[in-house]
Amino acid sequence: MMMTVETSLPTNQLRPRFTRLLRLAEPWFYLSPGIVLIALFIFVPMMIGISYAFQNINLLDPMDSGWIGWDNFAEMFDDRHFFNALSHTLNWTVSSLLLQFFFGLALALLLNREFRFRRWVQAVVFLPWAVPAFLSGLTWSWLLNPIVGPLPQWLTDIGFLRQPYNIMSDPHLAMWGPVIANVWFGIPFFAITLLAALQSIPKDLYEAASIDGASGWQQFCRVTLPFLAPMIAITVMLRTIWIANFADLIVVMTDGGPAGSTSILSSYIFTTAYQKLDFGYASAMAVFLLLLMTCYALVLLRIRHQLIK
Predict the structure, then answer these.
(1) Cβ atoms < 10 Å from Cβ of 162
(2) DSSP class of residue 40?
């Protein structure tokens, strides 16, 4: 009898622990297919790409390959084209982001009002976001072409240009071609996300502010902006990362020219990898861009956390 009690005690103690562990592990069983797919298609390629940054992988010289440590990074910081691309990336990202945000916010405020055919207008506003970037680049290249495109002629008629010419052949103005295309492409993202945030603001707050005598601008500053601030922080963070890595329009419209005046870091990485076939050096620049965007994202997330508080 004593032997039966002694052998049953460990079983009675282990059963609740096993049940508790099973309950803790149950969500991970459901998540395991997604985790495996994310690991296979995101983290594993990312780790392989990071490892390339420390190797000499040039397909034009396949016999001279192997681990070279930090040499790619040393070459990167001695490359003036890299720093030019970095400065162009800053100009490209800031100008595109600011124009997209302010136009998108204005459009969201407009769509938040009741008017006839509002649903149809919302569907039309979303169309640029649905167009492939490659097709957007080709379309805007045609629109800006001084021979077959209408925009240079219109700019000449209103006195902005002396005569129709291709602004993308001018090193001082060439960046504005892809920026305009990028702004047209990205406005719907801000418009739709900010519109969703606007519609979640309680109408009672505006009624109370109006009763207190607040003007439209005061209502916007004291009611709308505080509620939009967390959404603005996350959308600005996401869009900044996408714009900085968005080489499609640059490659299609200018291919980094003329004279490298529109070469941004992501397009320089693309041309280094797929034209010069130097995957080691391209991976080193990609790792630098990854670290830069990670630091930026951490700062924005910290700001958003403070705004939520």
Answers:
(1) 8
(2) I
